[in-house]
Amino acid sequence: MKHLLILAAxxxxxxxxxxxxxxxxxxxxxxxxxARDIVDGLTTEIGPRPAGTAIEARARDWAVARLKALGFxxxxxEPFEVDGWARGEEHGEVVxxxxxxxxxxxxxxxxxxxxxxxxxxxxxxxGLDALKAAPEGSxxxxxxxxxxxxxATQDGTSYxxxxxxxxxxxxxAARKGAAAxxxxxxxxxxxxxxxxxxxxxxxxxxxxxxAALSVPDAEQIERLLARGPVRLHLVLTPRATGVRQSxxxxxxxxxxxxxAGIVLxxxxxxxxxLGTGAIDDGAGVAIVTAAAKRILDRGxxxxxxxxxxxxxxxxxxxARQGDAYLAAHRGERHALAAESDFGADRVxxxxxxxxxxxAAVRARLAAALAPLGIAAGNATAHGGSDVGATxxxxxxGIDLRQDGLRYxxxxxxxxxxxxxxxxxxxxxxxxxWTAMLAIVADAPEPLLxxxxxx
Length: 454
Known about the structure:
Layout: H1 2-17, H2 22-29, H3 34-46, H4 54-69, E1 73-86, E2 90-95, E3 100-102, E4 104-106, E5 118-126, H5 128-133, E6 143-147, H6 157-175, E7 180-184, E8 210-213, H7 215-227, E9 231-236, E10 239-253, E11 262-268, H8 278-297, E12 305-311, H9 314-317, H10 320-328, E13 334-339, E14 347-353, H11 359-369, E15 375-376, H12 388-392, E16 396-402, H13 407-410, H14 423-442
Parallel strand pairs: 5-6, 6-7, 7-8, 11-12, 11-13, 13-16, 14-15
Antiparallel strand pairs: 1-10, 2-3, 2-9, 4-8, 5-9, 10-12, 14-16
Helix pairs in contact: 1-11, 2-14, 3-8, 8-14, 11-14
């Protein structure tokens, strides 16, 4: 009975504080087709969108045209600069008695081998800590190979545990004298498709050739090493292309109360080049745009301005795109921020960062999202690299957490294509985001602890 009373109170609060019927908007959004149409168009008409390239620029122009056609206001591009990097030739093979080709791909910021390639003996490390423990200079003239056992997790925490092998491993190997490095792809699949992604070389450390092996190929190397020494031949010819222009695409639904602040929602427009960037992150920009369009189409301005941003160069920029956005809009009052950047599978949990004064907003969110099978979490929302800087600057935050059990089977690989998106799960995302936007954009409660601009 106690739980029924709490739910009844939340539903009553929902009806009183959100007269524009978030439940009705939510249910209608379960039939949404706009998100699928957007990601279909983006991945088909543009395809892969590597950061800082002419293709990413064409994608920004495509986004501007599409957002204007959908009826959003103040649509424009806000440029910023990134360091360019281009993939070249890439292949590898085991040489000698057990000669065989390998499926691999260069990591972003990888150095290059000589044009004819390099051949060297492999030194294997089971995880990043083992590589860190290698004596200085012990890898001179060798190819470091770092393996691991990443598995799928619903909340994506496996990426936090194993991602540093890709982020930091090549720089560590370079400091210890390695001629090159190959890693087991940071992925949970067993396809013979390697996973791309960024690596970072610390200041003063020269970039060495760095590649990710497909998971089956990494396991093959392990088996070969169990039988004796292994030598690899690598050809990787990527190059730095200098300073390039990227940009964030901004669109709005103007609010009726300028003092109530801005609700910022977004995803990122760029993608790695092996697939077509459907789940990372064509789905994300499609979800938030389709949800905002449903608020727009109700024909009544929300209390708060809803600002939709298709962020540029997330894949290579770290948080650069989020910092560029915040710098361009410093002095504006951001009430709340949220991003979609974890694929297209169903939302299963909602976490929030809200002031105590907005406890009723949290209750209304829980009530509106529960019929979609979304549980109320107790973690603090932090956003991601697109909106994290805005939340850190003082805005409230909402994390609509998607099911990640399939995500790292596909992420950054040639498998990231439109067919991997389940239309029903995509529509559930749109329904969740629509309900969330309807509630927070119209909430009478303050969403900031203080009235300070961020």
